[in-house]
Amino acid sequence: MRRGWRLLNKSNGCFLLAAAVAASCLLRGAPAAAGDADRENEACLDCHDDDAIEAGTERGAGLKLYVNPAELDASVHADNDCVDCHQGERTFANSPHNRGQPLKLNCAGGECHTDVVREYQASIHGKGARDGVEKAAQCPDCHGRHDILSADDETSPTNKFNLPKTCGRCHEDLNVVRRQPHHYETAVSDFVDSIHGRALLVSGLAVAPTCTDCHGVHDIAPGDSPESSVSPARIPETCGKCHVKIAPVYAASIHGQLPDDPKKRHPVCNTCHTSHTIHQPDRPVFRLAADKMCGGECHVKELKSYDETFHGKAIALGRPDVATCFDCHGHHDITKIDDPASPVGERRRIETCRKCHPGARERFAGYLVHADHRNRKDYPALYYTYVAMTALLLGVFGFFAIHTALWLYRTAAVRRADPEGFRARKRAEQTDGEYFSRFLPFDRFLHGLVIVSFLLLVATGMPLKYHDAAWAHALLRLFGGQAYAAVLHRIGAIITGGYFAMHLGSVAARLYRGRAEFRRPETGRYSLVLLLKFMVGPDSLVPNGQDFRDLFAHVKWFIGKGERPQFDRWTYWEKFDYMAVFWGVAMIGLSGLIMWFPVFFTRWLPGSAINVAQIIHSDEALLAAGFIFLFHFFNVHLRPEKFPIDPVIFSGRISKTEILHERRKLFERWAQRGELEQHRWRDEWPSWRRIVLPVGYAAWMVGVALIALIIYAIVSH
After folding, report:
1. What integer is the mean pLDDT of 225-250?
2. Contacts (Cβ under 8 Å, ≥6 apart) of 442
3. Which among 191, 196, 201, 204 is positioned nearest to 242, based on CA atoms?
4. CA distance linking residue 482 with residue 486, whole number of Å
5. What is the pTM of this model?
6. Count of Cβ atoms closer than 10 Å to residue 601 Cβ
7. Residue 646 near residue 637 (C-beta atoms within 8 A)
8. DSSP structure class, residue 306
9. Burial degree of 318 (CB within 10 A; 0-12, 13-18, 19+)
10. Coil, helix or strand for 432?
11. What backbone torsions phi and psi does residue 582 show, to the nearest 5 degrees?
């Protein structure tokens, strides 16, 4: 019979089929009995099991008219009549072929899916379909058409393991998603990568939730609707269906007991764990985002102060093994600070600290985690420390900025007045064949340690200070992360302590060798006056009155009111550099030790000393880096007379032309004492020049790059 129908033209075939079925129904005078289902379906399939029907009809254009009998026989609707779904009554007169519009499905016909359809019609999908929203999900979009299978069947699109793919047909289609008022473009892919998605799709755990476990099945409502199972009011209930042990703990916490306030979002499960990108709480990705979860919308002020601590900065730089919010405040059982059960309350705070800092005592718990150094009323010690350090920074930078600008202006004027003479003198200083010793090999070795340790300290420390700068993250990646950078920073500190101790030892040795000069000839006893005179003499780096006179004379030359002054072995700016090392090692070193060994130092100091140490360490480090890379580099290397580099600290020698031009007092003193030959250069600098100078240039360029990054971070911040 089917073969005969197919030989006819499709339009004529449909007409004859309609006539035959109509005649049959009229002769019977009543709807076909249920037992005639196979005969009725066979009549429909005479046309609809031919895949050519898709292209051979006009009224059916755009519809899926082809029916695979094998799929229909294997579906849950195998025993149903076609007209049970397609328009209800089993008479051809009431079938879609005699109507002027395409058939609409009738899943609620008879007693089939009445309740389900009612739920669907009230859902966001049903309302969208009723309002004519294009591509609004309808029954066939999820369940299929003639191949509908039970949800228990592993191949069914509504099986829980296949639902992410089924839902993703729409929710990964940007043309569909972006039309929604609150669209989430990566909902499905985020779910697949989450702990729930991996448990479901990778581990194959049937107990893991899928889309419908959270959003509902046929009654899906918008997330901001009170009826929605993922609305803020109902999220704890929805999550609690699986997390049965956590739900009552959360309900008893301060978050669970907060009243619903439409003006302020109530912290619920997805506030912290998010909706689709849920990660295992002990994984780094969750820990690194915890501070922003807590402070993003709720604890904004506390987040800002936490970000200023070492913990906050390290978290921001991608180090997950430091304390974050829930390590101190708890997880689902968070209570008020004044609650005796609170882990950050007075009774339990030290217990909480000891989880990371074993051996910590009561004073340690006095560390101010959320302190604001700008708040004079509540944190006066921090406030005045911050004010003092800021004043020191501005004072030093302000003074030397003016000093450098005046010096540069005066040098430029001298160069313009006699360009040939300026260049000739610079060449002579570099090519003069007569040299004198300025730095001993031991001094140059110590300066090499200064270069290595200082660059290491700045490169590993400044990213922590400017943790929100993109370059800070990139720089720390070169060191393998903040944890490795912290180790290198401590190595730099040890090198600093080492060269400082060696220098003090060399000073003590010089004092011992020159002890005869401290004795009065008439008595043979040591004199404190002679000792002090030796310590502030022309060969000493300790400042004296002459340095202030040299500074005044130099400034007069800057502004054209005096002659260019001549200096002895050390200039006033070199002595400032030298004394700054003592100040810096004391301030940075002591504050760094307090932060390195907080448990040890808080045996005697209050916990707030750690906060004070952090301010001092941070600002003093900025002062040191800024001064060295800006003003020391200018004074030594970048001023036009020396540019691009002064090799004296590497070679240890100074030409006669240079010493007569800048340090005539030293030359005259040596000549008067008959010490010129004693100081004449005898080292093999030319053989080392090709090795040492590239290192010096590299250090110079690294320093310039670092100060450029610091300035950029300050300006952009």
Report:
1. 91
2. 506
3. 196
4. 6
5. 0.79
6. 19
7. yes
8. H
9. middle
10. coil
11. -60, -45
What values do phi and psi take at 512, rounded to 5? -65, -45
Angle at 197 between CA 193 and CA 200, to 5 degrees: 145
Question: pLDDT at position 563, please?
Answer: 92
Q: Which two tokens stand for residue 330?
A: 């708890």
Angle between helices 300-307 and 284-295 (to 10 degrees): 130
Length of the chain: 717
Those residues whose C-beta lies under 8 Å from the C-beta of residue 656, and which sit 6 or more positions away, are: 432, 434, 435, 436, 667
What span, in angstroms and rounded, lies between the C-alpha atoms of 330 and 294? 12
Longest distance between any two alpha carbons in the chain, whole Å: 151
Contacts of 18 (CB under 8 A, 6+ apart): 92, 97, 98
Distance (Å, whole) CA 490 – CA 12? 91
| pLDDT tens figures, 465-484 | 999 999 999 999 999 999 99
CA dihedral 395, 398, 399, 400 (to 10 degrees): 120
SS3 for 680? strand
State the angle between helix axes of 37-48 and 10-28 in degrees (0 to 180), rounded to the nearest 10: 170
Q: How far apart are CA 374 and CA 363, in angstroms?
A: 23
**364: its two tokens:** 């340690």
Residue 435 has φ and ψ, to the nearest 5°, of -130, 155
For residue range 282-299, what is the model confidence (pLDDT) as tens digits?
888 888 888 888 888 889
Q: Rounded to whole angstroms, how far apart are CA atoms 632 and 543?
A: 17
Query: Phi and psi (nearest 5°) for 263?
Result: -85, -15
Q: What average pLDDT score do residues 148-171 get? A: 90
Are 503 and 443 in contact, with CB atoms under 8 Å apart?
A: no
Q: Is 27 in contact with 91 (CB distance < 8 Å)?
A: no
Task: Of 373, 379, 271, 370, give the one whose Cα is nearest residue 311.
Answer: 370
Nearest to 315 by CA among 297, 292, 333, 294: 292
Scored b (16 or more CB within 10 A) or e, 237-268 reads ebbbeeeeebbeebeebbbbeeeeeeeeebbb
